[in-house]
Amino acid sequence: MNSAKTNSGTTQNLSVSGKRLTEFFQTVSGLFLFTIEFFKKVFIPPYEFAEIKKHMDELGVKTLPIVSVTGFIIGLVLAMQSQPVMIRFGAGSFLPGMVALSVVRELGPVITALIFAGRVSSGIGAELGSMRVTEQIDAMEVSAINPFRFLVVTRVVACTFILPMLTIYVIFIALFGSFLAIFLSQGISFQLYLNAIVHSVEFSDIIPGIAKTFFFGFIVGIVGAYKGYNTENGTEGVGKASTSSVVISSLLILLVDMVLVKVTLMIWSN
């Protein structure tokens, strides 16, 4: 009898694993086809510039408070945590440059993208999901309006171009936070702090860090739009679309960042 229960439990676990694996491959293939459809539509006029501008304003302004706090804390904590170690090895004067390089090349872009994914991707998924389950998207199709162009393309383009702007803003806020931490502990002047950053950060450090946020913004937009546009099962599906948008976009951001870092190192080393 125990053997029968064990076999039943094993079969059930295999069934659940198989179902999840199937859902994973369905999501990957669906997202790939959805991305292809986006590139087919994005370059074909008419272009919804007014709608794109509206989404950029909404996404940027509403995300500013949380990324401002996050950026300030990143710079402050990084300087506070690194200072004892740098002083221990006699490299206290290199602290501003170390913090600046860390923020510009990796922490600023990635942390901002993850915060952006949590705030924006879930919002897009929930918004488009609600429109799908309330048949608003179907009504647009009946009215001879292309919902994919109007709802998906505009949001993805807005996300792609607003995230680099937010990242630049976060980098400056983080550098101010690190200056405050160093000033309170060492009494360093702002001019000396600024000179240390200018001599440490090169043009080749800034461009890769900012450039990869275009990819991150695209990921946030396309994942949120895909999950919301293809929502099923009513209001329950809207909640799942919102949650899964954040999870998938965050994982993709980290994976793509790993690849881009490797590619960047290969390019600049040559």
Structural class: mainly alpha
Number of helices: 8
The separation of the N and C termini measures: 66 Å
Strand content: under 5%
Helix-strand pattern: HHHHHHHH
Residue share in helix = over 70%
Q: How many beta-strand segments?
A: 0
Oligomer class: single chain
Number of domains: 1
**Gross morphology:** elongated
Poorly predicted sequence stretches spanning 5 or more consecutive residues: none
Mean pLDDT, as a whole number?
86
Tell me about the biggest sheet? Answer: none
Taking Cα atoms only, what radius of gyration do you get, to the nearest Å?
23 Å
What does this structure look like?
This protein has 270 residues and is mainly α. The chain has one domain (45-269). The chain is built from eight helices and no strands. The longest helix has 41 residues, at 2-42. It starts with a helix and ends with a helix.
What descriptors fit this protein?
89% helix; 270 residues; 0% strand; mainly alpha; elongated
Strands, helices and their partners?
Blueprint lengths: L1 H41 L6 H40 L6 H39 L2 H7 L4 H40 L3 H11 L2 H27 L4 H36 L1
Tell me briefly what this model is.
It contains eight helices and no strands. The protein is mostly helical and 270 residues long.
